[in-house]
């Protein structure tokens, strides 16, 4: 080639606060981008689930129907449906536009920690502290789960779905990967209660954060550890971790009010994002852009690579909220 | 063709033409669908029925002519036309539509048959028949009907002019003889079937007898050779059913010859014409009965006879007239055969000739010469199994047979030898190792075993001290054996047995009648498998032993045997029974069973055991950060078929009937499984405070040590698993604790909200010290008691707490705890005040407005939770960090908490502060515990390790001097653990 290779762009980090959304729904238990990253879902401890516009920070819809605090939510690929789980042991399938409860799925024996759609939103998978993952069918009218995965010996704290795999992290210190295509279950022993699991975007690695204040990057096929990221504090709370959209960085919540961001390959701490004084409970990375959502207490903060808005806007938004 | 339009004669017009558009005409509205109707030319509606229901309807909705009914015919006097139309034609009932172009009887000008092609054209018929055979539809000449030659060819015209008649051959006329012969063959060829060529020829033939000699006949018509290639898939010569022949009926149609050679085929081409003479009008044939115009003697009930069918393809013999006669034809070879016949002396049967070549004579060999002493008697030697018969008998038998003993091994084969015999045969030296299992045992074990073998009545079970169940079984067995001994002594049936044999018998009985032996059936070793009878007897013996039958041996022996044989067998059985006695009685505790024999339950045990065993290795691997093979397990897992469908994935195990993991028990979360899981020293369920901390089991020991009388409800806050494990330790699964797993979860929820705070404080305070078992019981056996007591405590809270403190320090939870408490008292205020901050929220703000975000149920719910906790709602944290909070954060909090209550904000805060101070005063030393426990409540508080965690978290939450506090706490904790 005659032309020199273009220099790879230095990956940007979401270090600028774009806006703060005061959700006014108690503590925000989880914050999630939707499939395309234009909207965000905030799960409140006041039993409500709220849909916001990320770019403007406006409240679009409030979904109420849970009996207790909402712990996790997910949006379908076509943005037509939402699912959320709650401490009231139910999983609810919502219609986005009308805000009505499409289906209320009961069956878990304890609070439901995590919920996910599969790729085509035909199945809802929910993990609960009763140690089971239940696969709910959204296509049929049956209210029984298709299958109950009860291999976990303790509560299931986190769960992710890929095309044909199901990754669950359990408090029994094991990460389980159910491979539907192969019909196999791979159990990785971590020895510390798992708080969050993620697939990498390329589908080759899994990221697990556990209560020994360590985030580990494991090779999916062999279970070998590719990276270990420490420095943050995660000892008692169920906090999230995630990978950046291009798998360049590992991000994790911390109990010291920061979001830690490590380089994936080197494992060095790249950024310690001061979110606030309390525990950063949840975070979510934009599916394509460099944008990060953090949830602390009752606020959701949107972080971007470069400041795109002036502070006044944020203030205006906040005043609107108030 | 026919057309009704004048301008273009070749076209047929359907429907009504569109009216030509005019220039200025406004656009007309389209006709609505319900008005788009079809009318005939008279204006009547035509309702279309659909293609398969008859097209347009007729009449008035298919019923009558008009809405009013049938139009009555006007009376017309038929006086003048009486002789006129007598019989009505179909056309009389047709209207003009039917007679129209597209009706059922169109009126059109056609060429009638009279004008078609002169006379009746046989040639054309012939060609037509040929084409009909090769037509796509056999027998139907569609194309022929459409394309009709108007006239016959010129050649035919010329022939006619020359005197040729239809049906005749072309050529010079022939004499009668030839003609007759041909006719003969024709009649023969058709056998019993009526000759199809019954036309002019047969008629000629019939009266040909009387014809004079000089009459000549036209030659037979030469049938055109059919060169149509065979394109159908029928068999050779099969021409299918000719509808013309089949439907025509008549006497000749009884049998339809489906098989024709080419000659026959062409014959049949003329069949229709020739038969035409006999054809009568009307429908005839089988199934239609005898018509008035038919003869009665016709075979209306058609019976098909086999002579109608050809047995040989081709059918027609070359003219010898010997149908089916296969004898040598003498007249064919008259000349050369005569010499041979003459050479044979004797009468040659009619129809036979001499054979041309002679048959070879078979040589017969004489039988072999028998030896002189051969006796034609076979003696069947009895097959004697040496193992089933006593050696003496065997020897006797062998000697009687003249065989000696060395034949026996070869008969049985080397497989029947045991290792010692083989060793002797091979001349090998004996191995040096121990000869039996008993040599491997220690001396005392051997003694114990021998003691077990000689249960001398009641005293035998004394020295043996295996597992309690075993001992029980042995005692029972010994009792049974004693009774057996007595009974058998009375009977004295086997008086000739030594007392030692008697004892062995009883021993076998005691062994086999034990409860363990009853359990395992069907897997007993079969020592006499080679001799089924003996094995059956042995099985009977074992069965009766199992039932505790005393004289099992006598009953099971064969009464027909000699006394001596029975004695042998008796010995053998007893020995075998002792040898193959159920292993569980003495040795089974040392061996695990094979996996194959285990049921589902055992399988699951295996799985869990494996995991537990692995956990240590895995932990070590994790410690060394050697993730990978060491920490990974891969299992077979069956997804549900529907799940695969939903994921668009083929089912990996299409045939498997189950889902999930094959080996894991379903009710994995039953209480006892749960107990075993939580018992495992890894305590993986608990968030280990210091990562992989080796002092986990130490914690349990502290549990047990610290179980003192003083503390009460702290245990409520304990996670279920912890409680269960404790309960299991205390009372091995029997107590009510094991069953009341729900206790801790239900109990807190019934607490009244107002007292919640107090209880929580108490709980927090008791977090550090471990409760005693009776406290657990007290709480979980009856929750109502606990409730009432707690309510009473609500009032006299402080006194009780003081008391409890005293008790606790006295009861010796250890100096560590008191020390710890002291440490807590020395802690700086902010963390302490921070902790109860949520309670003020709850207590004070709930009455004041809707601002209380976390409902009071919060704590109750979260008490039952497992796993990592959720961070506390924002309010508590903000309050916790109040000293360091910026005003904006405060505002935040207040905005959230008390939206409408702006005025009361400050007030509430003051109250809160006061409350906190008060609390602080009250439980100086308990601040830390409170904090930690509150955190636990607020989130999950489930796992064992969370105690340590919570404390740490509490430290963090304290915000001020956290580091030092943490250090101190850890040192205290470490001491505690030791």
From TrEMBL, chain A:
Keyword DNA-binding (UniProt):
no
* Primary location group: cytoplasm
> Per the database entry, which stretches of residues form a coiled coil?
none
Q: Which SUPFAM superfamilies match?
A: WD40 repeat-like
An example GO CC term for this entry is: catalytic step 2 spliceosome
* GO BP, one annotated term: mRNA splicing, via spliceosome
Q: Which family would the database say this protein is a member of?
A: Belongs to the WD repeat MORG1 family.
This one is known as WD repeat domain-containing protein 83
């Amino acid at each position: 080639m005659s032309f020199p290779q273009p220099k790879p762009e230095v990956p940007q980090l979401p270090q600028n606060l774009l806006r703060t959304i005061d959700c006014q729904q108690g503590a925000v238990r989880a914050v999630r981008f939707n499939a395309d990253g234009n909207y965000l879902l905030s799960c409140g401890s006041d039993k409500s689930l709220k849909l916001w516009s990320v770019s403007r920070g406006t409240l679009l819809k409030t979904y109420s129907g849970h009996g207790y605090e909402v712990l996790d939510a997910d949006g379908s690929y076509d943005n037509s449906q939402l699912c959320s789980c709650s401490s009231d042991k139910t999983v609810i399938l919502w219609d986005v536009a009308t805000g009505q409860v499409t289906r209320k799925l009961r069956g878990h024996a304890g609070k439901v920690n995590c919920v996910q759609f599969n790729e085509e939103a035909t199945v809802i998978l929910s993990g609960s502290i009763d140690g089971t993952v239940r696969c709910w069918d959204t296509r049929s009218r049956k209210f029984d789960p298709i299958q109950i995965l009860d291999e976990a010996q303790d509560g299931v704290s986190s769960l992710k779905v890929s095309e044909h795999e199901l990754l669950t992290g359990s408090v029994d210190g094991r990460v389980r990967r159910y491979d539907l295509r192969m019909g196999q279950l791979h159990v990785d022993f971590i020895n510390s209660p798992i708080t969050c699991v993620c697939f990498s975007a390329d589908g080759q690695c899994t990221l697990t954060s556990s209560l020994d204040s360590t985030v580990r990057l494991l090779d999916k096929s062999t279970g070998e550890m590719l990276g270990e990221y420490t420095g943050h504090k995660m000892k008692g709370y169920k906090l999230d971790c995630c990978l950046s959209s291009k798998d360049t960085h590992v991000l994790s919540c911390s109990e010291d009010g920061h979001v830690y961001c490590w380089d994936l390959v080197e494992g060095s701490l790249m950024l310690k994002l001061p979110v606030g004084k309390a525990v950063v409970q949840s975070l979510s990375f934009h599916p394509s852009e460099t944008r990060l959502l953090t949830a602390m207490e009752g606020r959701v903060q949107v972080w971007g690579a470069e400041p795109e808005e002036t502070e006044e806007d944020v203030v205006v938004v906040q005043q609107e909220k108030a | 063709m026919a057309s009704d339009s004048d301008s273009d004669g070749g076209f047929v017009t359907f429907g009504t033409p569109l009216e030509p558009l005019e220039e200025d005409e406004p656009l007309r509205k389209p006709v609505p669908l319900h008005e788009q109707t079809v009318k005939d030319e008279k204006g009547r509606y035509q309702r279309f029925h659909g293609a398969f229901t008859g097209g347009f309807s007729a009449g008035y909705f298919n019923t009558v002519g008009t809405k009013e009914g049938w139009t009555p015919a006007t009376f017309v006097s038929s006086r003048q036309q009486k002789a006129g139309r007598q019989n009505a034609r179909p056309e009389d009932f047709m209207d003009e539509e039917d007679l129209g172009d597209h009706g059922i009887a169109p009126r059109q000008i056609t060429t009638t048959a009279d004008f078609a092609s002169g006379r009746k054209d046989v040639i054309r018929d012939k060609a037509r028949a040929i084409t009909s055979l090769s037509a796509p539809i056999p027998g139907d000449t569609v194309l022929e009907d459409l394309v009709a030659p108007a006239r016959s060819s010129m050649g035919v015209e010329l022939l006619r002019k020359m005197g040729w008649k239809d049906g005749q051959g072309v050529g010079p006329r022939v004499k009668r003889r030839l003609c007759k012969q041909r006719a003969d063959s024709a009649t023969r060829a058709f056998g019993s079937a009526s000759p199809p060529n019954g036309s002019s020829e047969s008629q000629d033939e019939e009266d040909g007898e009387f014809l004079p000699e000089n009459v000549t006949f036209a030659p037979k018509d030469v049938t055109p050779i059919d060169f149509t290639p065979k394109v159908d898939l029928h068999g050779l010569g099969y021409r299918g059913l000719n509808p013309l022949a089949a439907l025509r009926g008549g006497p000749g149609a009884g049998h339809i010859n489906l098989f024709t050679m080419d000659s026959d085929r062409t014959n049949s081409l003329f069949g229709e014409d020739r038969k035409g003479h006999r054809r009568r009008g009307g429908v005839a044939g089988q199934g239609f009965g005898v018509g008035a115009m038919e003869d009665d003697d016709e075979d209306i009930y058609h019976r098909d006879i086999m002579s109608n069918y050809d047995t040989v393809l081709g059918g027609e013999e070359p003219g010898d007239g010997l149908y089916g006669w296969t004898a040598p034809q003498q007249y064919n070879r008259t000349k050369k055969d005569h010499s041979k016949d003459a050479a044979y002396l004797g009468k040659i049967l009619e129809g036979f000739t001499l054979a041309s070549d002679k048959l070879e004579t078979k040589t017969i060999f004489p039988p072999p010469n028998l030896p002189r002493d051969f006796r034609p008697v076979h003696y069947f030697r009895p097959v004697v199994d040496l193992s089933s018969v006593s050696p003496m008998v065997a020897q006797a038998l062998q000697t009687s047979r003249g065989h000696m003993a060395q034949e026996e091994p070869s008969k049985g084969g080397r497989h029947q030898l045991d290792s010692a015999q083989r060793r002797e045969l091979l001349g090998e030296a004996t191995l040096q190792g121990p000869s039996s299992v008993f040599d491997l045992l220690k001396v005392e074990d051997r003694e114990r075993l021998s003691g077990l073998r000689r249960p001398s009545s009641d005293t035998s079970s004394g020295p043996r001290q295996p597992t309690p169940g075993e001992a029980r079984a042995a005692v029972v067995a010994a009792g049974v054996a004693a009774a057996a001994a007595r009974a058998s002594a009375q009977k004295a049936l086997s008086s000739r047995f030594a007392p030692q044999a008697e004892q062995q018998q009883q021993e076998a009985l005691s062994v086999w009648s034990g409860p363990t032996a009853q359990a395992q059936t069907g897997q007993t070793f079969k020592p006499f498998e080679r001799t089924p009878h003996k094995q059956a007897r042995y099985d009977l013996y074992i069965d009766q032993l199992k039932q505790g039958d005393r004289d099992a041996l006598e009953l099971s022996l064969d009464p027909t045997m000699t006394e001596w044989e029975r004695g042998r067998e008796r010995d053998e059985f007893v020995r075998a029974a002792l040898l193959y006695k159920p292993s569980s009685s003495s040795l089974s505790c040392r061996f695990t069973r094979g996996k194959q024999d285990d049921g589902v339950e055992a399988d699951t045990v295996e799985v869990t055991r494996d995991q537990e065993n692995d956990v240590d290795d895995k932990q070590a691997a994790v410690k060394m950060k050697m993730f990978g093979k060491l920490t990974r397990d891969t299992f077979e897992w069956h997804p549900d078929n529907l799940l695969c469908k939903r994921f668009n994935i083929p089912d990996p195990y299409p045939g498997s009937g189950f889902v999930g993991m094959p080996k894991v028990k379903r009710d994995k979360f039953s209480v006892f499984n749960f107990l075993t899981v939580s018992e495992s020293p890894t305590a993986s369920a608990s968030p280990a405070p210091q990562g992989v901390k080796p002092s986990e089991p130490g914690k349990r020991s502290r549990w047990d040590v610290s179980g003192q009388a003083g503390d009460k409800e702290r245990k409520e806050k304990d996670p279920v698993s912890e409680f269960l494990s404790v309960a299991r330790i205390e009372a091995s699964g029997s107590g009510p604790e094991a069953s009341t797993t729900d206790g801790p979860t239900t109990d807190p929820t019934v607490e009244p909200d107002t007292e919640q705070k107090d209880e929580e404080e108490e709980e927090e305070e008791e977090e550090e010290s471990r409760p005693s078992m009776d406290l657990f019981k007290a709480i979980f056996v009856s929750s109502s008691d606990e409730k009432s007591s707690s309510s009473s405590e609500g009032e006299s809270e402080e006194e009780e707490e003081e008391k409890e403190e005293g008790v606790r320090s006295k009861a010796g939870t250890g100096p560590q705890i008191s020390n710890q408490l002291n440490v807590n008292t020395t802690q700086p205020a902010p963390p302490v005040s921070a902790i109860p901050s949520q309670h003020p929220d709850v207590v004070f703000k709930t009455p004041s407005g809707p601002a209380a975000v976390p409902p009071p149920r919060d704590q109750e719910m979260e008490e039952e939770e497992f796993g990592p906790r959720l961070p506390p709602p924002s309010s508590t944290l903000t309050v916790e960090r109040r000293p360091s909070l910026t005003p904006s954060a405060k505002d935040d909090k207040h905005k959230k908490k008390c939206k409408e209550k702006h005025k009361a904000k400050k007030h509430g805060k003051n109250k809160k502060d006061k409350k906190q101070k008060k609390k602080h005063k009250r439980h100086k030393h308990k601040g830390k515990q409170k904090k930690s426990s509150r955190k636990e409540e607020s989130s999950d508080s489930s796992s064992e390790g969370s105690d340590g965690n919570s404390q740490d978290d509490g430290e963090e939450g304290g915000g001020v001097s956290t580091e030092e506090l943490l250090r101190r706490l850890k040192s205290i904790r470490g001491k505690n653990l030791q």
